[in-house]
Amino acid sequence: xxxxxxxxxLPPLYxxxxxxxxxxxxxxxxxxxxxxxVLGMFSTIPAVVLETIGQGVLEMVLGLxxxxxxxxxxxxxxxxxxxxxxxxxxxxxPTWRSEEFNFVFDGVVYGVTASLGFAALENxxxxxxxxxxxxxxxxxxxxxxxxxxxxxMGHYYGIAKSAEVxxxxxxxxxxxxxxxLIPMLIHxxxxxxxxxxxxxxxxxxxxxxxxxxxxALRAVKKYAxxxxxxx
Length: 231
Hints:
single chain; 231 residues; mainly alpha; globular
């Protein structure tokens, strides 16, 4: 069991450490990051509830039970919507009014922390069921996708906070919407492609993982390099 837990927890903790290192100007307090991480872990509970309700609506109200339309709605709206919303609030509740949230890039650190907290508990459950092979596959696919969603969520969240500080409420609201919508699209596309059994989409899956990893890594370095103090 200890090997299983290490295999499940090492990838999200490693990615979290890498993002923490990139935050070179002013490190975030470990206690604050721990709270966000734990909230991210526990946010899996409301996510499951929301996903169950959403699936019920698709099946009982809309009469959908399979096929690409069902998968599209299920993964882009129900799953991605539920998981990114709960991760957003796991990030926002401890940080929005925090005095530590004084750099735009702090938002990226918070977003990745919440997302990887969610991914850590989810990964433990999957790996306990599927074993070490599952741990290996998820370490290269789903764990990075959660982190990538956290990068973009946190980036727009940081801009939203900056806009609020400078009194631009319209920009703040717009950036908050982007902080949810962009991760939902990234997450939904990943799950939708994985759900399809066509050979074309299997090939597309590998291309999608490689490209999202590449652009996210470049984005993190850019965001960190262009970081600015808000107050």
